[in-house]
Amino acid sequence: MLRLAAASLAGTAIEFYDFFVYGTAAALVLGPLFFPTFSPVAGTLAAFATFGVGFVARPLGSVLFGHIGDRHGRRPVLVASLLLTGASTVAVGCVPTYDTIGVAAPLLLLVLRFLQGLGIGGEWGGAVLLTVEHAPAGRRGLWSSFPQVGPALGFLLANGVVLGLSATLSEAQFSAWGWRVPFWAAGVLALVGLWLRSSLAESPQFLDIDDHARVPLTEVVRDHWRLVLLTAGGLAIGYAIFYTVTTWSLAYATERLGVNRSVMLVCIMGAVVVKGALTPLMAVLGDRHGRRPLCLIGCAAAALWMLPMVALLATGAPLPMFLGFVGAMIAFITMFAVIAAYLPELYEPRVRCTGAAVGYNLGGVLGGALTPIVATALAEQGGRVPWGVGAYLTGIALLSLACFALLPETRPVPAVAAEPATG
C-alpha cells in the first residue's frame, strides 16, 4: 500500500504541476504576451478564459479515460493520461507569442490547454481508484489521501519554479523566455512519473468484476445522474476556493493592489503547505466519523469565511493575506481530503471510474473554470475590498452545502458492496 500510494502521490503531483503552472502563467504573463491588443483587464480575462478551457475539457477526459478504466482497467489510465498531459504542457512552452504568429498564438494555446484538461480529467479517477480499491475498508480515507496530497505538491513545485525564476531573472527576461522554463520542465517530470507507474499492479476490485459495462457513461447517465449532479454541486466550492486563492488573488493583488509578485507567491504557497499537511489528518477523521459530516463542516466554514478572506486580501499586507488564505484552505481540505474515498464509495465498481471522475470534474467546471473570470469581473466593479467576490463565493458554498446534505453517508459500507443510487 505504501509503494502504491507513493506512486499515486508522485503521479498526481506531476500531472497537477502541469495544470497549475498554466494557471500561474495566466495570472502573470499570458495576457500581455498572447492578447496584447486588449486592455490589461481584458487581457487577464482572456488569459483566464483559456485557463477555464482546461476545466471544460476535464469532464470529457473523465468520460474518455473513465471508459478505459471501467472497460480495461485503472492502470492503463494512469499511463495514458500522464503522457497526454505532459506532452501538451511541454508544447505550451514552445508556442510563439502573438507578436510572432498573430492570432494563431492564442488559438494554439487554447488547443493545448484543452488537451491538458483531457489528461487531468483521466488522472484523478485512475490514481484514486487504484489506491482506494487496494486499501482495506477501514483505512480507505487515509490511503486515498495520498493522491489528494499530490495536487498540493504539484502546485508548490510549479509556483516554486516560477518564484525562483522571478527572483533570478529581470522582468524583461521572465517575459521573454523565463515563463517557458516551467512548461519545458514538465517533460522531465512526465518521464519520472511513467517510471514510477510502470510497475503498479491492477486494482483487485476491477479484476473481480465479471460483467464489465459496455458503455459506462450510458449506465452512469441512466442510473446515477442524480449522484453526478449532487457531487458536482458539492465539489464546486472546493474548486472555487482553491482557484480564487491560487490564481485570481495572484492577478488581483499584483495588478490592482501593487503587491510584489514574489510576496504573493510566498503567501499562497504557505497556505497550500498548510492544506497539504492537513490532508492526511482530515482523511483519518473521515475514516472515523464519516465522509459526509466533514463535507458539511467544510462547506459551512467556507460560507462563513469568504467575506473575511477578501477583506484580508484587500489589505495588501502579507500576514493578513496569508491568514485569509489559510482559513480558506482549511475549509477546502476539510471537504476534499475525504472526497477521494467518498466518491468511489457512491458508485458500484463496474461504472466507478466513469461516475466518480465525471462528478469530480464537473465540479471543476462549476467552481474552477468560472471563478477566476467571474471574480475578475466582479472586482472590477467594486472598490478596494472586492465584496462582490466574497458574496459570490459564499453563494457557491451554500449551494455545495445543500448538495452534500442530500447525499448519503458511505463510510460503514464496503466499497465493493455499495448499492448503486438511482435517479
From TrEMBL:
Keywords for this protein: Cell membrane, Membrane, Symport, Transmembrane, Transmembrane helix, Transport
PROSITE patterns associated with the record: MFS (PS50850), SUGAR_TRANSPORT_2 (PS00217)
Protein's UniProt name: Putative proline/betaine transporter
Family the UniProt entry places it in: Belongs to the major facilitator superfamily. Metabolite:H+ Symporter (MHS) family (TC 2.A.1.6) family.
Domain of life, per lineage: Bacteria
Topology of this chain in the membrane: Multi-pass membrane protein
Cellular component GO terms, alphabetical: plasma membrane
Domain Major facilitator superfamily (MFS) profile: 4-412
SUPFAM superfamilies found in the cross-reference section: MFS general substrate transporter
Summary of the function given for this chain in its UniProt record: May be a proton symporter involved in the uptake of osmolytes such as proline and glycine betaine.
Cellular compartment(s): Cell membrane
InterPro entries the record matches: MFS, MFS_dom, MFS_sugar_transport-like, MFS_trans_sf, Sugar_transporter_CS
